[in-house]
UniProtKB/TrEMBL annotation:
The keyword Methyltransferase applies. Keywords: Endonuclease, Hydrolase, Methyltransferase, Nuclease, Transferase. This is DUF4942 domain-containing protein. Residues 87-274 form the DUF4942 domain. InterPro entries: DUF4942. One of its GO terms (biological process) is methylation. The lineage of its organism: Bacteria, Pseudomonadati, Pseudomonadota, Gammaproteobacteria, Enterobacterales. It comes from Salmonella typhimurium.
Length: 282
């Protein structure tokens, strides 16, 4: 994908590289030390509970929790079950942080990000180790172009061909989407849902192709559009560097592209995936 963007993220490429200047060895060593100390603490709490029960003081679950606010705590459970859950929770958090720092999330569309986060909710997530970190991010590095291009194709395939402006061969000067906005007695509002995600994906792809940093999700086009609509309840038009968006009471939105050279790069990707459409695109 290097021919399309100068914004390649900082992803691991070999055994001497780091992810955003974070040492893999430090992560793994810290994780192992934390788990070792946690297991020791669980055993100590169990020993203390045995002592306090023997003198009529009940267990740590009774006297270590706030009054009338007793809740589950893995530190108070049996060591084998507790360490399994604690290890999984800790590793899940570390993987999320590594993925965020790697820059790979910026290349993923909403579907790919959901698949990644859902995979972390499973019980059999890989342990955080040097070997697993290296193999995971080397694989992600090699597939980053494919991941990005799949996102472009997913956005394209999500367009409705019921509108003449939406060409089944390419992104045109504008696209039309349904369900992006709503209208009621208070005026317009931006809907939550897959169309909102798709607009954010589209902006991120154009920004990457332009070689610029991807906006934080707190400042992406959907947030800016939402703020604009909130401040201008009866406005029907929004503009920024990438788009002009006209929206209508029935919920449809006309999204016009302001950077045709970037749209051409999107269409280059579509052509590679749908070579049979080459004549139509040209």
């Amino acid at each position: 994908m290097s021919e399309h963007t100068n914004a390649d993220p900082e992803v691991l490429t070999d055994h001497t590289d780091v992810i955003c200047s974070t040492s893999i060895e430090r992560i793994v060593t810290g994780r192992n030390a934390a788990l070792q100390q946690t297991e020791s603490l669980i055993h100590q709490l169990n020993d203390i509970s045995t002592l306090t029960r023997s003198i009529g003081g009940k267990s740590a679950l009774d006297w270590a929790m706030k009054q009338d606010f007793r809740c589950g705590c893995w530190l108070m459970e049996k060591p084998q079950a507790a360490m399994k859950a604690i290890t999984r929770n800790l590793d899940r958090s570390i993987w999320r942080d590594l993925m965020k720092k790697s820059g790979m999330l910026a290349l993923m569309d909403a579907q790919a990000r959901d698949e990644w986060y859902n995979s972390l909710e499973k019980d059999d997530i890989p342990a955080v180790s040097e070997k697993n970190i290296l193999s995971t991010f080397e694989q992600l590095h090699h597939s980053k172009g494919e991941v990005f291009e799949r996102g472009v194709i997913n956005v394209f395939k999500g367009l409705s061909w019921d509108f003449k402006s939406n060409s089944p061969c390419k992104f045109g000067k504008k696209i039309i989407v349904t369900g992006l906005v709503k209208y009621d007695r208070w005026g317009f509002g931006l809907n939550w849902g897959w169309q909102r995600d798709r607009l954010a994906d589209l902006e991120r792809m154009l920004v990457l192709l332009d070689g610029k940093p991807v906006p934080d999700n707190r400042a992406d086009v959907t947030r800016r559009l939402s703020d604009h609509i909130h401040a201008n309840q009866h406005s029907t038009r929004y503009k920024d560097e990438m788009f002009t968006i006209r929206y209508f009471r029935k919920g449809t939105a006309h999204i016009s592209f302001k950077r045709p050279e970037l749209v051409d790069k999107l269409n280059d990707i579509i052509v590679r995936h749908y070579l049979g459409m080459l004549a139509c695109v040209n």
